[in-house]
Amino acid sequence: MAFVFIIVIATLWSITLLFKTKRASSQPTLPPGPSPWPVLGCVPEMWRNRPAYKWVHRLMQQLGTDIACVRLGNTHVIAVSNPELAREFLKKHDAVFASRPLTMATRILSRGYITTGVVPWGEQWKKMRRILMSDVFSHSRAAWLLRKRTEEADNLVRFLYNQSLQSATINGAAGVVNVRTAAQQYSVGVMRRMMFDKRYFGKGRDDGGPGQEEEEHVGALFTMLLHVYAFCVSDYLPWLRWLDLDGHQKTVSEAMKVINKYQEPIVNDRIRLWRDGTRKEPEDLLDVFISLKDSDGSPLLSDEEVRAQVTEVFLAVVDNPYSAAEWALSEMLNQPEMLRRATEEVDRVVGSKNRLLQESDIPHLPYIIACAREALRLHPVAPFNLPHVSIADCTVAGYFIPKGSSVLLSRLGLGRNPAVWDDPLRFDPDRHLADNRRDLAEADLRFISFTTGRRGALGWGWGRT
C-alpha cells in the first residue's frame, strides 16, 4: 500500500513538473544579462565596476545585444540601445511604461513626489502635467516670456564681450572665454529671469556675469541633475540606506539645501504678496504658479507644490541646452570649416549688423540646427534617458518585461549605434541636412534629444530656443 502511495505521489509530482516546464518554456524569457545573486541581484558587480553606466554598456557589448536585463536588488533594469526597440517601448507600449521609480534623490527633489517629471504614474502626476501643459509650457506662455529671454540673450552677448576683453588685457592675446561656464550660467540665467524676473540673487557683476550666489545656485542644480538617477545602492537595497554607502544621500541633501537657500525666500515672499492681495497680476512664472485657482476660487497649488515644482522646472530645461551649445561650439572650434559655415549662415539670415540674432531667426538656420542635433546625438547630456517603469507585465520584442521593471534608453547607445549611423563617432552635421530635419526633436528615437510619449519632455519647445 505504501509503495502504491509513493508511486501515485511521484507520478503526480512528475506531471506537475512537466506542466510547469512546458508552461515556462512557452512563456517569453527576460532579455539577456548577467546571473544575479539572491536578494542582492547584481549590486555587488555594479559597486565594483563604477561608474555603473559604463559597466552596463560594457555588458551589452560583451553580450552582443541591444537589450539587456540587469537585476539590481529586486528591480529588473532593462537597458536599450536600438531605435526600433526604443520605439516599441515608448510608442507601442507607452501606456505600460509610463511611471517612474521611487528613489532617494527624486523623493528629496520632489518633496515627497508632488511634482511632475520624477513622479510615479497617478493622479498627482496627471494634475501637475495638466497645469504645466496649459499654463506654463504653452505657445502663448512662451510668447509672453519672450522679452525676458531676449534681454538675457543680450546680456550674454555683453558678458562674453567683456570676458574676451578682460582675458585679452590679462594675457596680452586673443580673448578666451570658458564656454561651459557661459553656457551653464546662461541656461540657468534665462530660467531665473522667466521664473523670478531676476537676473541675480545678490548684487551681481557689472560685466553681466554671474556673482558668487548665482555660481553656487547653478552648481547645486547641476549636482542634483547628476544624482537624480545615478544607480544609488540604497535605491535597490533600501535596508542599506542608513549607511549611505556611495555618499549620494549626503550630496543630494547638501545640493538641495543650497537650492532652497536661494529660491525659498523669493517663493515665500511672493506667496505672501499674493495671499494678502498686494500682488494682482502675474509678471513671471512664479506668479503664474501661485495665482492659479481651482473651480472654487481657491489656490490650485499648495505652497509646497509651488516650491517643489519651481525647482523641477529649473532642472527640466537647463541641461540639454547648455550641453548642446558647449559641444557644438567645441566641435566647430576643432573644425574651422564648420565654424565658418555657421557664421556665414547667421550673417545671411541676420543681414544688417545693426541687430542681433532673434528667436524668430532660428527656423532659418538649418546648418546651426544640424550642428545642435549632431551634438545631442554624439555628446548626450547623460548616458541614459530618465527611467520608464512598467505598471504591468509586458512582452516587448519577444522578451518578458515584468511589472516594476525600470527601462533605460541608452542615449550613448542610440546615438552611436553603427547599425543606424555611418561613422557614428564622427561629428558630421551634414547627415541631418540630408535628412532635411529642421528641429531638435527626434521622433524616431535614433538619438534622444527630448523624450517622447506620455512622459515626454514638456519643456522641449523652450529647450530648442
TrEMBL record:
Alphabetized InterPro entries for the sequence: Cyt_P450, Cyt_P450_E_grp-I, Cyt_P450_sf
Record has Iron as a keyword: yes
GO terms classed as biological process: secondary metabolite biosynthetic process
Cofactor: heme
Protein family per UniProt: Belongs to the cytochrome P450 family.
Name of the protein in question: Cytochrome P450, E-class, group I
Transmembrane segments: none
GO molecular function: heme binding; iron ion binding; monooxygenase activity; oxidoreductase activity, acting on paired donors, with incorporation or reduction of molecular oxygen
Keyword NADP (UniProt): no
Organism expressing this protein natively: Trema orientale (Charcoal tree)
Keywords: Heme, Iron, Metal-binding, Monooxygenase, Oxidoreductase, Signal
Signal peptide boundaries: 1-26
Lineage: superkingdom: Eukaryota
